[in-house]
Amino acid sequence: MSKIPYLVLGLGALLFAVLALRRRLVLRRRGVAVRARCSAVQRPTEGGPARLTLRYPTPDGRTRTYLAREGDCPPGTCEGDAVEVLYDPREPSRAATAQAARRAPWRHYDLFGLMGVSLAMVLASVSGSVFGSALG
Length: 136
What we know:
Largest sheet: 5 strands, antiparallel
Distance between the termini: 14 Å
Strand order of the largest sheet: 3-2-1-4-5
Shape: elongated
Number of strands: 5
Structural class: alpha+beta
Order of helices and strands: HEEEEEHH
Helix content: 40-55%
């Protein structure tokens, strides 16, 4: 059985996790703080966390939109409330709530978990093919 699909999948997931973590850290380091307004709150019919639509202005006069998770906003945020958002001045469409962007880097459990699983996949597919060829 070929382990190449697992290697490709693992490398792809690892690359995605590293780039997503880098994006979060870039906003933490050079993000510009602005006040966004919550324009809508979408609650899923099956339950789970709500998604909040945040609109924020940028220096070029445009109003940008960011879709945030309920856990990344202050508790009790409703339509019309102000939420602090950080955006990347080099790419104003790249944004996150200040609460999410200022989270300690080691607290990004989702990305570190994805990195660990994908790294394990890569190592298992590489070591299996190395050991398999050495033994066979």
